[in-house]
Each structure stands twice: as structure tokens, then as C-alpha cells.
Write a structure and sequence with these properties.
Strand order of the largest sheet: 18-19-21-22-23-24-25-26
Helix content: 40-55%
Number of helices: 27
Shape: rod-shaped
Structural class: alpha/beta
Oligomer: single chain
Length: 699
């Protein structure tokens, strides 16, 4: 719609005819005031107005329209006299879009106005686009950028700059304002990636990098861009966005860190340690003189400390130990926590084994300093196993395994602070592994048997009971005694199901004898109870079930417990033993004299019987000092209300010495070797009138 304003009616008529013939809608006004009213009533797409008009002339009308919001961008074409340069200049100054000279060429006028309208529409679309872009740039969370390659200038949006803590005026349009702030480790890569997309080698520019902010810290950014190309596919600009991904990167880095580090101490975990150990093995295969060593460290008695002080302080102790070890090892070495109280150290580039042993000595010395745990002073010792690369390892797991094996050797040798691995240790470890596997199979296939050794009442020389001793009928190695497999059974915890089978079988057999022979009515059956068995929370219920199942009266069952078993967990052991004693079961302290705190246990725990270790009984008839020790032990036991059994005793003079010391019972291979139940039963059946030891020596 065209608004024509002119005071000449002929001009208005000719303009209307020319424009309507070309499908324009025309609105007419005979002066500036009327034109202003019609403009406000209905905004035209273009206005054609004369310069000189009554009421309001064309200049003032143009000025008023441009002041209106809806008239800001409407094209205004002024009608001026021929060669009226002053009017033309003034028309442009007040906001005219173009001008037409009088007299008019009415046939060309529609074409001219149509061209002006198209240009105006394009201009308005461009303005809208720019406004939209400006709004997006201001409101977007991402920073926008536009790199003009022709001028080599880059536009960085206000948001782009504020993301880095800068104001609008702080950063110019030189590309170095952007590229120069990228971290030096990322810069060359980013430049390469930008160039690759600029030269159409990639479909999209996309890169993650670190960029310095106003506080001289680095933030992680994700940057994307797309090149604009000409008809020859040459990029003349690239436009893109930049997103702050610092939080995501930090979260990813934490996940990666947590995956290869111990959550408690922050030290490398097993995964990272094995990776670094693999690298050392690979390096040693390429460098002839490159050597390294592994130290496997385990804290001594940590469980006691942890149970006594609580797990919270136990964790603090582990953190402090990790920090102390880290202080004394070399800077390039790796300290790792494998779990629990086990640490491992990778000593790289060692000239000889002394570098590793010196490391072990420094660790031992450092741990001797007391650790303060909320007022509680704790001193921790450790056992260390060492293995070196000269053995020629191919797999990191094997080297770690051998260091663990050496550590275990150090742990079972109280005087040893560390042990260096040798091939015999591996052979023994493999032997233990085979025994453990065979033990599991033995349990499944019933390869165990119980032998019975009589306990003799010295004064009457009659049998008072038996001790049940396990034997293993190994399919390849023959009959094995406990010394051949007991240590492995304890370490593997298989001693628990094995021990319960022995108790069950021994109680069943003793009840059978009592039902068959009157001579057996007062006999007792003694069974050894290991530390792992004593520590089982269901031990009481298991013993009760066995007694109920076999029908044996509890007063005929004796459980023999070594001093070392009591050291493991004395408070739990005391509670368990008191419950067993209340049930009527007798308790015997076995191998007395071989422990470190023997006498303290005699009054602390509810023992009924004391078994003197064989080391005190041998040569009793030849050494006066041993006789004095035995006399003292027997006297002490009697004063505490306990009976005494001498282990390993022999007939003759030793037997008489025991009688003279008022020792009640004796037991040993010299009296009679352990026999199967069938052999014992045959001895009873052979001579029911003989219940002395002579009768049981009949096979």
C-alpha cells in the first residue's frame, strides 16, 4: 500500500493511475496534516510525498514520521523540483529514503518504487536477523565467535568474554586475543584442528582445550565451529560457539583418578601399580642394565589395633602410615595400597638389591616412631617381602606374587624385618597351594580318618581317655600327620570344617564305646581346637549340635586349646570358653610352656587341665633343671585346681619321676602310638578284663 501526499490534484490522480495499474493499493492525502493522520491510522508500505505542501510540508512530515515507532523503517520517497539540490540534500537529512524529480515519468514510477520496497524489505530482514543474532549472543550460555578470514578479524561475543571474567572492552578482535590465551599444551593442536576444517579436511571444527581466564587460571572449553565457503569452496569466515566444560572435565578426571587410586589414602591402587610395574618390565626387556624391585609390606597385628581402637582410628592409622612411607621412599618410586593393611612399593632403576633393602630399613625405622591417634600412642611394625627384576619376570602379577611370598616368610620369622625372594619360596608356595587344593578334595571325598591315643592315669596305669588325632589318607602321599598339612589348613580356613568333622567323629566313636563296653563309662575324649575354630561365632551352637547328635554327655568331652590361639582374640576366647565350661565341657591348655605368656593364661581362662609340652618331659630323668621345672608347673597347676598331663612321656625312670612329681596323667608315642578306632575296639574285645595300657598294645 502506497500513501501519496501532494497538494496538486493532478499529481495525485496520475500517481494513483500509474500505481494501481501495477497492482499497488493507493491512499491519497492532499496535505501533510491529512497524510500524518492516515499514516497513524494505517501504516503504509511506502510513502510518496511532495516537498512543498500546506499545513505540514514534506520535510516536517518526514521528520514526524521518522519519530514514530511504526515509521522508523518505512521507505519515504520525496517529490522535488528538477535540479533542486538543496531540497534533495535536506530531504535525506530528515530521513528520506529516495527522491523523484518532477516532472515525473509515470510509467517508470511503479518500477522505481517496487525496487525501493524490495531493498527496504531486505534491509528490514537484515535488521531483524542482526537483532536476533544480538539477542542470541547476549542471552546464550555459550560464547559465540565469528572469524572473518578476509580481514583476519574475530568477533567474540560479550558472553564469550564474560565466561573468562573479562569485560567487553578488555578483549579486541585480533585472533591472538583468543588463540594466545589457549594453554600451551593445547594450542598447536587447536590451530591444527582449525586449519583442518578451514581447508575442508574435516566436516566440523570441534575441540576441547584449556584457556586462561582473567584470574590467570585455566578453564576447560568445548569449542565448535562451521566454515562459510564461496563458490570455489574456499572458506572466507568461520562461526562457532564456546562452552565451559570445566565441571565436566573435573568430574571425569575425578572418576579416572578414583578408578586407579585408593579411596582412603589417595595412593595408587592395584590397577595403577600393576600398570606401572608392566611398564618397568617392558622397559627392562629393551634396556639391558635397567633393574627394579618390588617391596610388599604388611602391618603386624593390625587387626588387633583395628579391633581395639575401632575402624575409624584404624583408617586414620593407615593414612598416617601411607604418608610416612611416602616420605622415606625415593621421589620416582611408586607407593600403592593394595587393600587392608597391605602396601607395595615399586623401586625403579635400582643398581643392586641393597637399594631395596635400604628402603626397607628406612621404612622400619620410620614406623618405629609412635603414632598419636587421638591421644592413644601406637607403634606399628611391618613385614616386608622383596623381589627384584633380575629373576626375569614377564608378568607383573608374578612379581607381585613372589614379593607377597617373601613377605609371608618374613612374617613367620619374628626376628626378620624383611626377606628377599628366592626360587625355593615359590616352590614352597606352590606346594602349599597344591596341599590346599588337595585338602578341599579330601573334605569332599572323605579322605580323613581319626586315630586315638590313650591318656594314662599314672597312679593306676590305666586308660582314662583318648585324644583324637586326625590323619589324612592322601591318595598319592599315603598317611599324613597334622604336621604335614595343619598349617595350610589353618591359613586357608579349611581347619574349621575339618575340625568340626573331627569333633563329630570323635564324640560319635566315644559314645559307641560307652554303649559297647562298661570299661569305657568314665573315659573322656580330647579334641584339639585351633584359633580359627575358637574365633567362629557359631562354635557354641555347633558343639551343642554335635553333642545332641551323637548323644555324648558334655562332661566326657575335653577341648584342647593352645596358648597361641588365645593371643589372637583373648576377649572373645574368654567369653566362648566360659560358655563351654558352663555347658560342662572340660578345657585343657595344650603345649604349656611354649608360649610367651603362659602363666597369665592359667588364672585368666577357665582351664580344667594343663598339658606339659614334651620339651620339658624329654630327658627328665637326666637333667635336674627339667625336673625342677616340671615340679613347679605341676605344683602351680594343682594350686589353681587343675590336673596335669605330661606329653611325650616314656616308661621307666621318666614315668617314675612324673609319679614322684604328683603328675596325674601321661601320654605319648613311647606309651602307645595313636591307633584307629577298629584297633582300639579289637583290644577291648580281646581282653575285657584288661583296661590297663598293656591291653591296648595288642593289635
Amino acid at each position: 500500500m502506497i500513501l501519496v501526499a501532494d497538494d496538486d490534484p493532478m499529481i495525485r490522480f496520475l500517481a494513483q493511475q500509474a500505481l494501481e495499474n501495477r497492482s499497488f493499493e493507493v491512499e491519497l492525502a492532499e496535505n501533510g496534516g491529512e497524510a500524518l493522520e492516515k499514516f497513524e491510522a494505517r501504516t503504509p508500505d511506502l510513502m510518496l510525498c511532495d516537498v512543498m505542501m500546506p499545513i505540514v510540508d514534506g520535510f516536517e512530515l518526514c521528520t514526524l514520521i521518522r519519530a514514530m515507532k511504526q515509521g522508523e523503517h518505512i521507505p519515504i520517497v520525496m517529490l522535488t523540483g528538477l535540479n533542486d539540490a538543496n531540497s534533495i540534500e535536506k530531504a535525506f537529512s530528515v530521513g528520506a529514503t529516495d527522491y523523484c524529480e518532477k516532472p515525473m515519468n509515470w510509467e517508470l514510477l511503479p518500477y522505481k518504487l517496487n525496487y525501493i520496497l524490495r531493498a527496504s524489505t531486505a534491509f528490514r530482514d537484515l535488521q531483524v536477523s542482526e537483532e536476533r543474532y544480538s539477542l542470541v549472543a547476549r542471552g546464550a550460555n555459550d560464547g559465540l565467535w565469528d572469524w572473518d578470514y578476509k580481514d583476519d578479524k574475530v568477533y567474540l561475543s560479550p558472553r564469550w568474554k564474560s565466561m573468562l571474567g573479562y569485560e567487553e572492552e578488555d578483549i579486541g578482535n585480533d585472533p591472538l586475543e583468543w588463540i594466545g590465551r589457549i594453554h600451551r599444551d593445547d594450542k598447536s593442536r587447536v590451530i591444527t584442528e582449525l586449519h583442518a576444517h578451514k581447508t575442508a579436511k574435516t566436516d566440523l571444527f570441534e575441540s576441547e582445550y584449556r584457556i586462561k581466564n582473567a584470574e590467570n587460571n585455566y578453564r576447560w572449553m568445548m569449542c565448535r565451529g562451521l566454515a562459510v565457503r564461496d563458490d570455489d569452496d574456499v572458506a572466507y569466515r568461520m562461526i562457532g560457539s564456546q562452552t565451559d566444560i570445566t565441571d565436566r572435565k573435573q568430574a571425569e578426571e575425578k572418576l579416572v583418578f578414583d578408578a586407579v587410586h585408593d579411596a582412603l589414602t589417595g595412593l595408587p591402587n592395584r590397577i595403577l601399580f600393576l600398570d606401572r610395574l608392566s611398564h618397568c618390565i617392558e622397559l627392562s626387556s629393551r634396556r639391558e642394565n635397567y633393574n627394579f624391585a618390588v617391596l610388599y609390606l604388611d602391618l603386624n597385628r593390625f587387626k588387633v589395633i583395628n579391633d581395639s581402637l575401632g575402624h575409624l582410628l584404624g583408617d586414620k592409622l593407615l593414612v598416617e602410615i601411607g604418608a610416612r612411607i611416602k616420605q622415606v621412599i625415593r621421589k620416582g618410586d611408586t607407593l600403592s595400597r593394595l587393600g587392608g593393611d597391605e602396601f607395595v612399593i615399586l623401586c625403579e632403576d635400582t643398581s643392586d638389591i641393597t637399594m631395596a633393602t635400604n628402603q626397607a630399613e628406612r621404612i622400619h625405622k620410620e614406623l618405629l616412631r609412635p603414632i598419636d591417634l587421638e591421644g592413644q600412642k601406637v607403634v606399628v611394625s611391618c613385614s616386608i617381602g622383596i623381589t627384584e627384576s633380575s629373576i626375569g619376570y614377564k608378568r607383573p602379577e608374578d612379581m607381585l606374587r613372589d614379593a607377597d611370598t617373601a613377605m609371608y616368610r618374613a612374617k613367620v620369622r619374628p626376628s626378620s624385618r624383611y626377606e628377599i625372594f628366592d626360587s625355593t619360596m615359590h616352590e614352597k608356595a606352590m606346594s602349599i597351594l597344591r596341599i590346599e587344593s588337595d585338602l578341599r578334595q579330601a573334605l569332599e571325598e572323605g579322605q580323613f580318618d581319626v586315630y586315638y591315643q590313650p591318656i594314662v592315669e599314672i597312679s593306676e596305669e590305666t586308660v582314662s581317655g583318648f585324644e583324637a588325632l586326625i590323619r589324612w589318607n592322601h591318595p598319592k602321599l599315603g598317611v599324613l600327620i597334622p604336621d604335614d598339612f595343619l598349617e595350610v589348613a589353618v591359613e586357608s580356613r579349611l581347619i574349621v570344617p575339618i575340625g568340626r568333622w573331627v569333633v563329630t567323629e570323635a564324640c560319635r566313636q566315644m559314645q559307641t564305646w560307652k554303649e559297647q563296653w562298661a570299661e569305657a563309662r568314665d573315659w573322656t575324649i580330647s579334641v584339639n581346637l585351633s584359633a580359627p575354630e575358637l574365633a567362629q561365632p557359631d562354635l557354641i551352637s555347633a558343639i551343642n549340635d554335635i553333642l545332641d547328635k551323637t548323644g555324648l554327655d558334655p562332661i566326657f568331652l575335653k577341648l584342647e586349646i593352645t596358648e597361641s590361639s588365645l593371643i589372637k582374640n583373648s576377649s572373645h576366647a574368654l567369653q566362648t570358653m566360659n560358655t563351654l565350661r558352663t555347658r560342662g565341657i572340660h578345657l585343657s591348655i595344650d603345649d604349656f610352656g611354649t608360649g610367651h605368656s603362659s602363666f597369665s593364661y592359667l588364672h585368666q581362662f577357665p582351664f580344667d587341665e594343663l598339658k606339659i609340652d614334651r620339651t620339658f618331659i624329654s630327658e627328665l630323668d637326666k637333667r635336674a633343671d627339667k625336673q625342677q621345672i616340671v615340679n613347679a608347673i605341676v605344683s602351680l597347676a594343682h594350686n589353681l585346681g587343675m590336673t596335669v598331663v605330661a606329653e611325650g612321656s616314656a616308661s621307666g625312670a621318666i614315668y617314675e619321676n612324673l609319679r614322684g612329681a604328683s603328675c596325674e596323667y601321661a601320654q605319648g608315642f613311647s606309651i602307645m602310638e595313636p591307633k584307629r578306632a577298629i584297633q582300639i575296639s579289637r583290644s577291648i574285645a580281646f581282653d575285657v578284663d584288661r583296661t590297663d595300657i598293656t591291653g591296648f598294645n595288642t593289635d
